[in-house]
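Response to reviewer comment R2.3. The reviewers asked that we include at least one raw input/output pair. We reproduce the pair for GTP 3',8-cyclase here without editing.
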Amino acid sequence: MVTPDTPLTPLRDGLGRAITDLRLSVTDRCNYRCVYCRTGESGALYSELSMELYLRMVRLFVSMGVEKIRFTGGEPLMRRGLTDLIAEVSKLRMARDPEERLDLALTTNGHMLAPMAKDLRAAGLNRLTVSMDAVEPDVFARITRVQDGFQKVRDGIRAAQDAGFERIKVNCVLMRGFNDDQIEGFAEFARTEDVIVRFIEFMPLEEADDNPESSRKWSPDTVVTHDEILARLEKLYSVQPLAPNHLSETARRYIFADNRSEIGIIAPVSRPFCGHCSRIRLTSDGKLRTCLFSQIDHDLAGKLMRGMEDEAARVWIREVVEKKEARHHIGEAGFLKPGRAMVHIGG
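Raw output as returned:
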């Protein structure tokens, strides 16, 4: 019988890339309506599965060599039972070394984080990323369309630090004309709050919008590129590049010359990093996606609920991953957005 502790041939795609990172969405609900993500008041499909089924799927991937799991949404902290799921996943051993624990991370908007931080840490969560797209409360409210959010997110970050989370990452999606004036403020925020700020280039993952004049639609002009971000940072402080922690790392890392905190720039548009991609995704309704920009969903949960045994599921997963896309094609002729918005894919 294969268990999560049984050494197996690591999961690899057809290009030989080792697949070690799983991003698991546990809900597509969100209490924010960020302008670059949600079209308006609604949009959630409320496509959630049982925590038992999520755990079974995670076990499959851990038994195939996955060692990093990131819980996402929507807003994952809205999902009842999340800490229990994290606690169960934290008990699984890595397939290649039974003495090591899985690397468990979570991405949240931070609104509900303060009262939950200690429980998340106690459940076995190792790392935390907070999505925060402005450091000025009025800009934050305009982007999120939530009036009381900024202070709650800031309180959540500080509560997480008090709970023992170190090197918390704060992700900011930059969108020209909406929050590109926040770059300098985020540099100060990184230094004063002792967090790692990571700027992310805006990608074409917003929900469909029937208004052809909408300023929130992706176009090349909306992207604030890696080089522009770095140039603006260097006008404030001397920054130095850092070596990547691993080949599949998404962020180009920089440190202030006085060693006060770190900045990362995730540049999938201007500097794609597909060549070393180690990630696959499970949507909240149990669809396996081999790339953020996949045109095809693979219904793993459906197969399991219809009676597929674990051994057959592993064979099927390997066949799907074998066909993982070589790269995305943003900005190229014929590029097609994925059929799902980011909130339905999982951050």
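Confidence is low (pLDDT under 50) at residues 210-215. The first strand starts at residue 21 and ends at 25. Further pairs are available on request from the corresponding author.
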